[in-house]
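Here is one chain, start to finish.
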Amino acid sequence: MTRQDSGLAPLLRYENIAWFEGGLVRMLDRRVYPAREEFVRCATHGEVAAAIRGMVTQSYGPFHAAIAGMILAAWETRDLGAQAQRAFCSAAATTLATARPTTERKMRTVTDACERVWEEALQGRADPVETLQAYFIAFLDDRYATIARIGHHFADLLPANPKILTQCYADCDLGMILRACRERAIAAEFFVPETRPYLQGARLTASVITDMGFPATLICDNMPAWTMVQKKIDVFTSAADVITLDGHVVNKVGTYQIAIAARRHGIPYYCTGTPNPEHPTVEGIVIEERDPAEVLSAMGIRTAKPAVQAYYPAFDITPPELVTGIVTPEGVVCNAQCATRNAQLYGAHIVPAGSVGFKPD
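Its structure:
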């Protein structure tokens, strides 16, 4: 059977994100890609959590890594009895789920599922490692197939020859949008903010776009508003680390300001993803603040004097009134009060993809 990552850029192949094999979890080090293609190899689930925390993989990569880490945890306990395995499994799930605070609740759904699979293997006297590996492949194929529907719904919204502004790295969402555009012969052109300090846009997004045969123009993070005007951008898009049920988009810091600029210039902002039941409202979202030292350098080179201080919130929150629509596997979730800047309530409904006006209401 053809895997769901067929036809996607190398960066989106399962083995190049996070993969368990031979008692190790291997992750492509996205901190140095594409300048170097290096893999970080983890011998314990704790090392996997440290790699997630250390930004070896980003976007949805940590979720792949968490499942691979749970397989590795099962490998670590292969010589232990069932009760010892259960205790180790629970501890490993907590270690992996809490590696980064902003996505903890979402990560819990992944590690909880792995715990259930592990328990079923124990009860059925099956090998937890083999059972979790089979679950991993099924999970990846199902996820990619689901996101493929998002890609087609997004393509339904595009005008002819669209100019699309991205933000950060949208992972498989981006790949499936590109694949849908390629299948429909949509001549899309992309403008890509670099996304400091890790430069995910420059290194990851632009790589995937060009690897899949589309033109990508790199811009600095302070250029989106002027680029919208000068390059006549048609649509702004991002994925999300969390989409709350009340319509807020939690994504790489910078998304909020680009959404403001997009609204000012009448450009629709379509976020791809699915609202998360674990976050019914924006209350409880914890914005991760990373080491400020990461802002004071670029690719390992210090860019400011020693006395200069820094601030590094890893994410920001875009309110629903700035989001034209959320492109989900089922269709487009539209904010009924999208045109009202000071909207107090988020009224959302699913409408068939393609029936949403391209410009904001």
